């Protein structure tokens, strides 16, 4: 199968990259991080601009006010967000904007409009998410900045006002300075709200894939950071990129990123649970290990607060624990192999 992007998809990717480079450059990222991003509110103006650009309404039917695209295009947008380490509950807000639409290109505009969280598609509302499923860690990101919470409980999805979690949620220290986290008390259970019956499994799969796309963007960015540094930094009268050990590090980083890209893009087309599990597993590995290798290429400089490499590693750690961990993805893949008898045993 040919997974090359078409002209419209390339235009979407390039347009989103231009928007984020203009509205969320490195200087803005450093302002968020150095200004205690774990407690600072989200940039609502940027959130609304993302809404105006169609970021959150990409998969809503045009009749419901959306762009009418599919999961592959949403993956491209999330990849660009991951490249710039854009903070905020991007995945949850996009899911909430199309809650109930299912495969939105063929989905009902009436169903999408009836279940969507008001203001999410336009970027006027910030929606975070809480998974109450078996084995979930009950962590919520950016709760203090959120207007609503998309709660996945059992087979259903409910939308609650963020204030409903004010009492059962407690802030915890986050490894990522730009991703504040709250942990919800184990006794908390979702109460009746608006939402979509039977949608939880689909939303979990889509959330895992969109998170994998963000990891892919970060993995690709650290490849570029490592190569740029290896080209500019000199040692013993020559660029460090001329040394074979550094070349091998950069080559392994590129292989990881491109391998993950193939699987993530394929999963966006098939939307199969096993493919999404493989995509999340490989994208998490690429993001975490590429950030570590990028640190090695940068040497002692990479471990300083002023360098951006540690920010990619910390965000990758946080994302790796969201929606589908490595253990959960491996269980999904193993179950699929046993079901089809492809173990080779």
UniProtKB/TrEMBL annotation:
GO molecular function: acyl-CoA dehydrogenase activity; flavin adenine dinucleotide binding
Residues covered by the Acyl-CoA dehydrogenase/oxidase C-terminal domain: 208-316
InterPro entries hit by this protein: AcylCo_DH-like_C (IPR036250), AcylCo_DH/oxidase_C (IPR009075), AcylCoA_DH/ox_N (IPR013786), AcylCoA_DH/ox_N_sf (IPR037069), AcylCoA_DH/oxidase_NM_dom_sf (IPR009100)
Keywords per UniProt: FAD, Flavoprotein, Oxidoreductase
Cofactor: FAD
UniProt cross-references to SUPFAM superfamilies, sorted A to Z: Acyl-CoA dehydrogenase C-terminal domain-like, Acyl-CoA dehydrogenase NM domain-like
UniProt domain Acyl-CoA dehydrogenase/oxidase N-terminal: residue ranges: 7-97
Record's keyword annotation contains Oxidoreductase: yes
PANTHER family listed in its UniProt record: ACYL-COA DEHYDROGENASE, ACYL-COA DEHYDROGENASE FADE28
Family: Belongs to the acyl-CoA dehydrogenase family.
Protein name: Putative acyl-CoA dehydrogenase
């Amino acid at each position: 199968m040919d997974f090359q992007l078409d002209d419209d998809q390339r235009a979407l990717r390039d347009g989103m990259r231009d928007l984020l480079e203009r509205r969320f450059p490195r200087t803005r990222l450093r302002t968020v991080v150095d200004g205690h991003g774990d407690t600072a509110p989200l940039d609502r103006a940027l959130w609304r601009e993302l809404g105006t650009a169609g970021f959150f309404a990409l998969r809503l039917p045009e009749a419901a006010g959306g762009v009418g695209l599919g999961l592959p295009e949403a993956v491209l947008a999330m990849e660009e967000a991951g490249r710039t380490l854009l903070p905020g509950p991007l995945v949850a807000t996009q899911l909430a904007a199309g809650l109930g639409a299912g495969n939105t290109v063929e989905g009902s505009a009436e169903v999408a409009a009836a279940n969507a969280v008001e203001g999410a598609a336009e970027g006027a509302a910030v929606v975070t998410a809480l998974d109450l499923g078996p084995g979930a860690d009950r962590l919520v990101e950016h709760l203090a900045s959120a207007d609503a919470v998309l709660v996945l409980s059992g087979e259903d999805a409910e939308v609650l006002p963020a204030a409903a979690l004010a009492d059962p949620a407690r802030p915890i220290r986050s490894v990522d300075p730009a991703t504040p986290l709250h942990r919800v008390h184990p006794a908390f259970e979702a109460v009746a709200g608006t939402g979509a019956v039977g949608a939880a499994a689909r939303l979990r799969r889509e959330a895992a894939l969109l998170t994998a796309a963000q990891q892919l963007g970060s993995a690709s960015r650290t490849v570029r950071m490592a190569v740029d540094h290896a080209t500019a930094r000199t040692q013993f009268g020559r660029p460090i990129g001329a040394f074979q050990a550094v070349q091998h590090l950069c080559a392994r980083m590129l292989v990881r990123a491109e391998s993950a890209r193939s699987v993530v893009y394929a999963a966006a087309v098939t939307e199969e649970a096993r493919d999404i599990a493989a995509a999340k597993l490989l994208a998490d590995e690429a993001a975490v290990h590429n950030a570590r290798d990028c640190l090695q290429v940068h040497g002692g400089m990479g471990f300083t607060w002023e360098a951006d490499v540690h920010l990619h590693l910390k965000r990758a750690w946080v994302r790796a624990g969201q929606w589908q961990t490595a253990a959960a993805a491996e269980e999904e893949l193993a179950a699929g192999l046993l079901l089809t008898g492809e173990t080779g045993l």
